[in-house]
Amino acid sequence: MPVDPYILLLLGTVGLAALVPARDAAADVASGASTAAVAFLFFLYGARLSTREALAGLRHWRLHVTVLACTFVVFPLLGLGARGLVPVLLTDHLYTGLLFLTLVPSTIQSSIAFTSIARGNVSAAIYAGSFSSLAGIVFTPLLAAALLGNSGGGFSADSLVKIVLQLLVPFLAGQLLRRWIGGFITRHKRVLGLVDRGSILLVVYTAFSEGMVQGIWHQVSALRLGGLLVVEAAVLAVMLTLTWYGGRALGFDREDRIAIQFAGSKKSLASGLPMASVLFGAHASLAVLPLMLFHQMQLMVCAVIAKRRAHDPEVRAVSPGTAAAPRTAVGTGTRSG
Asked: 35: closest CA among 144, 126, 192, 167?
């Protein structure tokens, strides 16, 4: 199964933080740089998303509502249900991270890639992922405040203000300036992609450095990590099954069901890590660990499913010897999830 190279970079960053954590004045510099990086990251997200294309995508509103319901209703319900696994399989800190991962938005890039491989509705996957990311800027902190309470490191009105100032305001600024800078971003999307991935690595380094300084890694054993992986595998299996057969029950055709399955069953590392750094502060390292593990798991499992979906009998029946062409959208900007 494929291993995402970026996951290897993330793990390398975690290793660097374990060996050389930022302390004292260096920690203040890293924290300030991380805050600025997150703001810039969401500014780029706003500048990339075409408002006109997003509004055009609302024509398929039933599919988008279904994906949003999976992302921000069904996933959190599963997260709340996992509370019964503490302390048998999960510690309190790992459960907090697991619950947080159920609150973050869906991916964009990987949803599109897998939907395309499986011969699904690519256009729907693009818009569903975009709407989920946009909604997550508001829904994720609100759900975190409601469901996590003080267990995540002190949720308060101040936390929500930080979300608005650090995430929503830069995103809106990017949207407002898109008319003038959209072309530049499109022409240099590969370079800027390295910038936003580098920003996430900085966030990870800062979060795990704080965790090392505070000694929170002594609270996690290999046995507990194994338990976390089992729980995450179960959550992913439930969501993949529910999105596929639920889409059929709701009357969606095969192409739309594929988009629903891949957009509705995944969680965005790119959105979740910056949000965790704002919401959890010094507790962010354990909070993002379940998300990092789930991200790699979903990539490996969905890669296998997408390849099998491409050879479904329905696809072969469209034209003997030829796969059905996926429905695509032109000119949409995407980012990695």
From this structure: 167
Contacts 24+ apart (CB under 8 A), 192-195: 192/44, 193/335, 193/336, 195/40, 195/44
pLDDT in tens, 266-295: 998 878 888 887 777 666 777 788 998 898
N-to-C CA span, the chain: 19
3-state class (DSSP) for residue 327: strand
Angle (CA) 135 48 329, round 5°: 85
CA 265 to the chain's CA centroid: 10
What residues have CB less than 8 Å from 266, skipping those under 6 apart?
Answer: 106, 107, 110, 111, 298, 302, 337
Sign of CA dihedral 52, 333, 126, 288: negative
Q: Contact at 8 Å (CB) between 303 and 114? A: yes
Phi, psi of 250 (to 5 degrees): -85, 0
* pLDDT band at residue 243 under the 50/70/90 scheme: very high
Q: Confirm if 78 and 236 have CB atoms less than 8 A apart.
A: no
CA 263/CA 11 separation, integer angstroms: 25
pLDDT tens-digit readout, 121-134: 888 888 888 888 88
pLDDT of residue 334: 39
Residue 156 corresponds to which tokens in the numbers above? 């308060």
Res. 256 pLDDT band, cuts 50 70 90: very high
Q: What DSSP element (H or E) covers 37? A: helix 24-48
Interatomic CA distance for residues 105 and 232, integer angstroms: 16
- Binned at pLDDT 50, 70 and 90, residue 193 comes out as confident
Q: Do 140 and 158 contact (CB within 8 A), yes or no?
A: no
What CA dihedral angle connects 303, 307, 309 and 315, to 10 degrees?
A: 150
